[in-house]
Amino acid sequence: MERLDELESQSVYILREAYREFKQLVMLWSIGKDSTVLLHLARKAFFGHVPFPLMHVDTAYKIPEMIEYRDRLAMEWKLNMIVGRNEQALAQRRTFPDGNATRIQCCAALKTEALRKTLSGEWARWVMDHSTGQYVKTTAGEPFTGVIVGARADEEGSRSKERYFSPRDQHSEWDIGDQPPELWNQFKTDFAPGTHVRVHPLLDWTELNVWEYIERENIPVVSLYFDRGEGKRYRSLGCFPCTSPVESTSRTVGDIIEELRSGRFANIAERSGRQQDKEDGYGLEALRREGYM
């Protein structure tokens, strides 16, 4: 069996196990290449249908093209789309672009806190109405305790400490030292009631694997990943004030695959353009302990 087939089979198995074991299940969709591959795998695992909602945490600082792409696919693929945001922090201008927070503090408010409170149902959720393509504000939603995430172990240091099924406490906080062993494809899924569990079907995929799979499966990705004549492209997507493109002339998926195989980025971190990663001495680990994706 080829490597991509092995990875696909494992991810589909993890997705089906998660659906079987966790009743209040949601998948996070960042609109990036990894979570879009994860979305494609979910559609494959459930024969074209995604049987659980997708959630996107909107910081209000995403590149507009990302939001347009999100809503277009949600309509085309008939996805149960939920959006969460930290309305209070945005209204009070407690953000990095407003000059009232560091990048890490801004991420903590607009991403970590927004995600935690939207998952718990404490804050409002905006749900797509497919008859209009607009989002309708809802309140008092049920808490999601199973959360599918497109994290990869090779992308960033703290992600390498994850498990396929990674428990958090009731506040979504992550105790790295209290993770179950996962040996010989044996996974612990019988957690105590109320345990918040992150599920990581892409954990063993590499950046190259992701792009090879995108090419093989013809998965649509947002065009920001490609050079549009400026000699630059995004390798990792985030908020526009804190994310920079890399120097690259790759205009197609095939170009990106060749670029990665050449070793051009071998010593350059995939998230090197994400400025918040550089602000804190522990990288993203401190944010991830508190519930960051």
Fold and architecture overview:
This protein has 293 residues and is of the alpha/beta class. The protein has two domains: 203 residues, HUPs (Rossmann fold); 71 residues, no CATH class. Helix content is 33%, strand content 13%. The chain contains nine helices and ten strands. The strands form two sheets. It has an eight-stranded mixed beta sheet. Helix 1 crosses helix 2 and helix 6 runs antiparallel to helix 7. It starts with a helix and ends with a helix. The model has no long low-confidence stretch (mean pLDDT 89).
> Helical content, roughly?
25-40%
Q: What is the CATH-assigned architecture of the largest domain?
A: 3-Layer(aba) Sandwich
- Which series of helices and strands comes N to C? HEHEHEHHEEEEEHEEHHH
* Strand element count: 10
Helical element count? Answer: 9
CATH superfamily of the largest domain: HUPs
Rg (C-alpha, Å): 18 Å
**What fraction of the residues are assigned to beta strands by DSSP?**
5-15%
As residue ranges, the low-confidence spans are none
Output the structural class. alpha/beta
| Terminal CA distance | 31 Å
CATH top level assignment of the largest domain = Alpha Beta
Task: Kindly identify the CATH topology of the largest domain.
Answer: Rossmann fold
Domain module count: 2
* Average of per-residue pLDDT values: 89
Q: Order of strands across the biggest sheet?
A: 5-4-3-2-1-6-8-7
Give the biggest beta sheet.
8 strands, mixed
**Shape, per Cα inertia axes:** globular
